[in-house]
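Minutes, project check-in

Agenda point 3 was the complex the collaborators sent over. CS summarized: two entities, 697 residues total, and the question is how they sit relative to each other. Sequences were read into the notes so everyone works from the same version.
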Amino acid sequence: MCSVDELEELEKGTEVDWDSYLKAYYEKPRSAKTWSGFDVREIYTPKERVGKDYDETIGDAGKYPFTRGIHGNMFRGRYWTRREVIGIGSPADTHERVKVLADHGGSGLNTIADITYEMGLDADHPWAMNEVGLTGVNISHIRDMATLTEGIPLDKVSWSLITASTVASVTMAQYIAVAQNRGYDIRGLRGSVQNDPIHFRYCGFRPACPLDLSIRLGCDVMEYCTRNMPKWYYTTVNLYDLREQGITAPQEVAFGFGIAMIYVDELIRRGLSIDEFGPRFTFYVSCHTDLFEEVAKIRAARRLWARLMKEKYGAKDPRSMQFRFAVHTAGCSLVPQQPLNNIVRISYEALAAVLSGVQSLHCCSYDEPMCLPTEKGHLQALRTQQILAYETGVCNVADPLGGSYFVEELTDRIEEEVLKIMKQVEEVGGMKEAIRTEWLDREFEKEALKRQKEIDQGERLVVGVNIFSTEPETETPLGVQRIPSESARTQIEETKELKRTRDKCRLKDRMKQLREDAEEGRNVLPAMIEATKTFATTGELMGTVRMAMGYSYDPMEIIECSF
Amino acid sequence: MVEKRKIRVVISKVGLDGHDRGAKVVSSLLKEAGMEVVYLGMYQMPEDIIRSAIDEDADVIGVSYLSGEHLVFTPKIVNEMKKHGLDDVLFIAGGVIPPEDIPSMKEMGVNKIFVAGSLTDPLVEYIRSNVRGK
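CS then shared the predicted structure for the full assembly.
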């Protein structure tokens, strides 16, 4: 039996606010702007395309300027690669998760390094010990790379190695050394390395990525792979991480292209021709929640890149003009409030990627705003890709949104805006200058602040955050990913043990060679590969090259060179 | 009339975690709300943060965690605070922190946690109503 008070309380609890119900019935969208702030009209008509030639401005998929896609038959030829980024704890922990996803229909391996490795620190470095394996896999030496790749046929799979910093050079050396030790011909290896150290200064890795070292080592990898590994994608210029700073879609493309052109200019300066390396140049792009804008952005990027390569750099091979890209759905669009809603956000973002003709896709896990992906979270993200591929029919036709009056108009507007921003960058002295003077930092900070204010003031709505919010969650629906602390301990112990027991004489010779090559401006990859075979560690390889280039041995300036 | 002293806030990243977009945005927003904010930047160890908090006579310490390092560094920061008698300084954490860890972080000594996606007003309000001298 309830008391009168309790009954009244109960009735109040179930009472519907009919005023707000009626308001909801008549509710209209508050804004007619895209995510990036473009005003849009009620309807678009054929008038928008008067005077614009189809072949010249759009063209069929597979034909210059590739607005509609780089392959004529798009996914009829092959689905996009379903890659989920994996990196937890030790190489053995990560290896296990790689196998789980491969077992469930993942079609590309994709492993990501932890903070300590990206910074170029061994597991036993005083700054590394707290954080080994927390955000990715730690690889301190060749044995770690061997464990990570154990039992996997490296000549058959396509492996995407996500090391973005200057340490990508070490990653390639370790991967190549393991492959050679196992008897593979490296000319047959397929996959990619992120290797975009310039952008990585904006992801918290400035000590590991000074600008000249970034260009030098980034391009050493690009040059080495171009000459020795014809099936390897030697860079994935990362527009995604730039977008995550809070910038708009056109800024994402403009700033990303600015960085890409620094590498292109350097490779040409080294004597490579654009058509030698152009066909293996790739990009990593964000897909945010505004579906049409994201599709238009990618179509604009394809057209712009094709024209840049042909008109500015004189490319003749159509493959050099193709904007090849992977998509990472926008991590910064996800929120921990009502976390299952993230699955829906990710699905729309993945749909944008597929409608744009993506080559390879990573769907975020719904749990990323709480922790590293759990196994269940990872599998669910893979299933999102599989539902798109097998159930929705969206991959039957190339560029299905092409010809939409709206999408074509938005593509043109984004292209114009990108060109405008690229001109601004030129006006501050070019991309290197924009980076050196921190002009780019200020752009990021300005935009990030603007985005947060839009949410605070309710101009930008995020369900569960500033509209329809509920009590905070007390648990994560499918559990939390924990990093076993013994993984870090083992990692540290094994690194110390390796340093104690290796043949130091042979190692010293190889390191001397590396130092000389670095000092005299030769490509460091060959010497790095040989040194890693004699158990030089990640920190030692990076430190040696850093010193040769006039930097501190240790990016954190704590330990000294022991050679 | 004596001008009222502004609330002083020290914001920091800790360890190697480089996700600093949020920490910078929060610093700017608290400044706009009339507080005095010092953003220490990246690569701070717990001792560095506490030393700065003492030097700046901070009323509030805000630490941003986005790389799963919150359980490693929180006890160390709390220890340093105790060691230096900063008992009346508010310790606020923010970032990517699973809800499962919030009770234990509060037990360790964090006063309040604002996870990713939090709005600015409740943060400003929380600081104003809980800062020492209130």
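Noted in discussion: Residues 70-83 of chain B form the longest helix (14 residues).
Follow-up: revisit at the next meeting once the mutant set is ready.
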